[in-house]
Amino acid sequence: MRALIVDDSKMVRVMLGWILRKLDFEVQEASDGREALALLGTKSQPDVALVDWNMPEMNGFELVQAVRANRAFDNIRLMMVTTETERAHVAKALEAGADEYVMKPFTKDAIRDKLALLGVVEG
To answer: Which CATH number belongs to the domain containing residue 91 in this structure?
Structure first.
């Protein structure tokens, strides 16, 4: 399985990368939505993308909208991993096409459980 981590925080990318590699994912990283879109256009399209909301250039919400607007990316599962905890943000992300939502700070178990709900790891 392949995963794309999209977060402007290097520390968050390192932590999520560690978790995902322990779950046998090949991991790619992007520091904002524009960089992520460029990576999504490659042959090694991820099975899941873990996306932060607050990033420069293109934020996570805009990335979710862009991904869902492109039929070539229909098979990519999108999981928001963010500090945005308001119900309105959660609803907005899910309505835009995010498949799951995890609030920071997160645990390895929380990430694994959400990935299991998405069907990309065994529960």
So the answer is: 3.40.50.2300
Residue-level pLDDT at 42 = 80
Distances in Å between the Cα of 46 and the Cα atoms of 29, 41, 42, 104, 105 are 11, 10, 9, 22, 24
How many domains are contained in the chain?
Answer: 1
pLDDT value of position 102: 95
**Does 46 fall in a domain?**
yes
pLDDT at 86 over 90: no
- Quick one: average pLDDT of 22-30? 97
In a domain, residue 69? The reply is: yes
Q: Measured between alpha carbons, how far is 58 from 40 in angstroms, rounded to an integer?
A: 14
Question: Residue 87, class by beta-carbon neighbours within 10 Å (0-12 exposed, 13-18 middle, 19+ buried)?
Answer: exposed
28, 5 Cβ separation under 8 angstroms: yes
In angstroms, rounded to a whole number, what is the distance separating the alpha carbons of residues 17 and 74?
Answer: 23
